[in-house]
Each structure stands twice: as structure tokens, then as C-alpha cells.
Amino acid sequence: MHRPKNVELGVPRRTLTETIAVRAEHLYKAFGRRPNEIVKQLEAGKSRAEISHLGVAAVIDASFEVKKGEIFVVMGLSGSGKSTLIRMLNGLWDATSGSVTIGDTNIAGVSGAELRDVRRKSVSMVFQHFALLPHRTVIDNVAYGLEIQGMSREQRLTKARTIIHLVGLDGWADRLPSELSGGMQQRVGLGRALAADTDVLLMDEAFSALDPLIRREMQEQLVELQADLGKTIIFITHDLNEAMFLGDRIAVMRDGRIVQIGTPEEILTDPANDYVAQFVQDVDRARVLTAASVMEPGRAVVTTNGGPRAALRTMRDFQTSAAFVLNRDGSFVGIVRDQDVLKLVKAGETDLRKIILDNAVSVSPDTPLVDLVEPSVESAMAIAVVDEKKRLLGVIPRVTLLAALGNVNTNTGTLPVIEPPSTISTSVMTETLLETDSEGNDL
Predict the structure, then answer these.
(1) C or N: which end of the chain has fewer Cβ atoms within 10 Å?
(2) Span 292-435: which CATH code?
(3) Which CDD domains match (predicted)?
(4) Residue 225: which region, alpha, beta or left (left: phi > 0; alpha: psi -120 to 50)?
(5) What is the pLDDT of residues 419-438, one digit of tens each?
(6) Pairwise CA distance, residues 169 & 163, whole Å
């Protein structure tokens, strides 16, 4: 497929604020006759297995912060404690020890009335099995939370219609849940949570009951909705690919403990222990890693004001047949080839802009590697990685891309060579520079 000139691939990931929406500090949840004793023993250094005769330690010393506007994914296998954790975040289960703060409210120990107020105004939840009211229509299910809040019927139905449109259920407002597919029912559940207009949205295995294709559609729609609405989302899943697709950051749980928190790339490329490494070994790296994670410094780089001679010296020194060209402000312009630069130097020309080729591929740093394969195959040049102001951040040679996709370490201790290699020998370049040097410059 032909790619237009200077195509930019990928959409920059949203910018998160530094405001903390949810904070969990040293959370424990123990089940048994003596839950406080379980916590005491764990704090003294006993393992989960060693205190099993006292009961079950479902969550052990969990601490994390979720920023406003972030999708924070809690991932783990069955029995890891992730669902118990999320139920403590909205007070469905009291923490045995530790605290949960939603916004400015510490929900530990608050009265029932205060907790209900927090749920109405600050945090809503989407369950795995939809939890729809079967005798109510789609629009009434979506508006149910607004009804609980005391909003008038006209107002809540108007708002519910807007939400129904957002979640892609136009034309289904008057249907009953029994008339909908599983994916559509989950859209209703999501719509009901969105209609409540709380700052924080908790989602417990919300898509796990759906067929794979429908599940992917819901994941994509959730990302789109989050980008539009800016909600803070805490998403529970046992599916690693789902976690990698959705999460700004991921908390990996095992046996009640959080063993690592990081971005998808950090989890994939720098696992905290053998458990996490084994967990992520089958992940599709091409869809998780981004251009920023594999790019290298641009070495054969010249500026428009440097002229052909400076460009030829740079290409000679790095033994490459092309160089990346930047404007004075650092913005990426295109590339120049060694043969064209050599002709300019021999002709005594001083304007490099005459030979700049503007067909180099440039991508944003957030572009997934899967989107780089085709342009890398089609272009002999390394791919340029640029920011929103077109400033060159780095480059991705084809060999680097292939190594990243194959999980091969390319760090050999030597400088990488930007493809393709020079088509003109260094001796020819040096001779040309000497022959055309009228000012006795050091070459």
C-alpha cells in the first residue's frame, strides 16, 4: 500500500493530571474469625500460607495512587485478590486495615449515609454480569442512578438519551434487556455508570463474559469514551492483553499482594520478578511497545543552515548514505542522500534545501510498533520519531524494530549504524571535501 509523504502515525496518549483521584494506603482484607490477628501476623512477616489456619488473607498491604483521568488496571489470576480490592475501593467491603481515599474523602469508618453519598457523587461501578433491572427499558436502566439521586423524570431521561447515544445504543432506548445481546447489555451497564457522572468508574471484569470480537469493541469504545469524558477508571481483569490495551498503568497482583505497578511497556520490558516475566511472555509486543520505547538517538542529523559540506562530513563520519535534516528550530524537514549532497559540494552550491526529500516517514512517540512494520518495509531510511511540534526525538532503524519485535537485545556496546550504509566511499567524500575546500578547514 502506498503511504503519503510525511505521514504521522499514532495518536498521542492523553496527558494525565497530577491530581490524585483515588489513594489506597496499606490495605488489608482478611476473612476469618480473627481478621485483625491475620493482619498482625502478616505485618510481623508471616506468609499467607503460614497464617492460613486463621483464615484467608485476600489483600495484603496494597498501596497505590490513581491520577485523575487515568485508566488504572489491576490484573491478576483467579484468587489474586483483585476483585476483593476493588470492592474495598467503594466500601462494599470494609478494609480490615488501611485506608481508601476517594477525592478528599477517606471512606474508612464513615457512616452508611456518608458512604452512600460518596457512591452517588464520586464513584460508580460496572459489574461483570451487567446487573440490569429486567423489567425496565434500556433508557430507564441508564437513568436509574439519576432517579436514585432524585433528578426529575424529564431531566434524567434527557441525560439518559445523551448517554445512550454515547455508548452506541441509538434506537434501543425502549427495549428490555432480554431483547439485547450480551455486548449491548454491557453497554447499558456502562451507560448507567456514566449517567451517574461520578469522577471515578470502577469496572470489575466488565468485559470478560463477552465474546472476543464484542469484547474488543467494548475495549475500544471504553478508551474512546474515556478520552472524551476524562473519567478516572479502575479496571479489574485477568486478561493480560486487555490490561495492556486499556491501561495507562497496570498493577499486577499475586496471592493478595501487588507485585509490580508500571506502564504496559515497563511491565513488558522490565518485569519485577520471574512471575511477572512468565505472565507477560506471550504478550503481543507489537501492540504494546511504542516508538518511544525503541527509538535511538538520531546521529546522522544535519541542519538546513549547515550547508552541503557539513552534511557530507556528517554522512562520511557515520558512514551512511542519508541524513535527517532539521530546521533551525529543530523541526524535522526530510532527508538528503549522499549522491545528491556530493553533487552540490562539487558544484560549489551552499543551499542544502534544494535536495531535501520530504518522503521520509515520521511517527509520534506513542505509535505502536505494529503500525511501524509496513512503513519500515517500504522505506530504506530509518523512521523518524517526532513530537507535536515536529521536533526530532529519535530514529528507528529497521534492525532495531525487528529486534524489538523479536525481543532481542541490540545493545552490543557499539554505536548503531543508521540504515542504509553509505553508497560512496569515505575516501571519495574526503577527497571531494579537500578539493572544494577554499578556506583550509579541518576535515
Answers:
(1) N
(2) 3.10.580.10
(3) ABC_Pro_Gly_Betaine
(4) alpha
(5) 566 677 778 878 887 887 76
(6) 9
In tens, the pLDDT along 261-275 reads 999 888 988 899 999
CA distances from 392 to 169, 296, 308, 418 (A): 43, 11, 20, 15
Kindly list the domain boundaries of the chain, sorted by start residue: 20-122+198-283, 292-435
Q: What is the DSSP string of 167-200?
A: TT-TT-TTS-GGGS-HHHHHHHHHHHHHHTT-SE
Q: Which residues contact 288 (CB under 8 A, 6 or more apart)?
A: 244, 264, 265, 268, 368
Q: Report pTM.
A: 0.75
- Identify which of 199, 204, 194 has the alpha carbon closest to the alpha carbon of residue 127: 204
**349 and 307 Cβ atoms separated by less than 8 Å:** no
Question: Position of cell 429486567?
Answer: 134
Interatomic CA distance for residues 292 and 296, integer angstroms: 9
The C-alpha atoms of residue 290 and residue 254 are separated, in whole angstroms, by 27
| CB count in 10 Å sphere of residue 414 | 6
CATH 3.40.50.300 fits 20-122+198-283, yes or no: yes
Could you give the 3-state DSSP secondary structure of residue 116?
helix
Radius of gyration from C-alpha coordinates of the chain: 28
Q: What amino acid is encoded at 88 in this protein?
A: M
How far, in Å, are 44, 80, 83, 199 from residue 29 at the CA level? 16, 12, 11, 25
Kindly provide the residue ranges of all beta strands, DSSP E only, lying in 232-282, ordered along the sequence: 232-237, 249-254, 257-262
CA–CA distance, 441 with 312 (Å, rounded to integer): 14
- Element at 327 (helix H, strand E): none
Buried b (16+ CB within 10 A) or exposed e, 194-213: bbbebbbbbbbbbbebbeee
In this prediction, residues 350-376 reach a mean pLDDT of 88
Contacts of 322 (CB under 8 A, 6+ apart): 300, 315, 335, 336, 337, 338, 380, 381, 418, 420
CB 106 within 8 Å of CB 114: no
Please list, in sequence order, all residues whose beta carbon lies within 8 angstroms of the beta carbon of residue 70, skipping any fewer than 6 positions away: 16, 21, 232, 233, 248, 249
Helix (H, G, I), strand (E, B) or coil at 224: helix
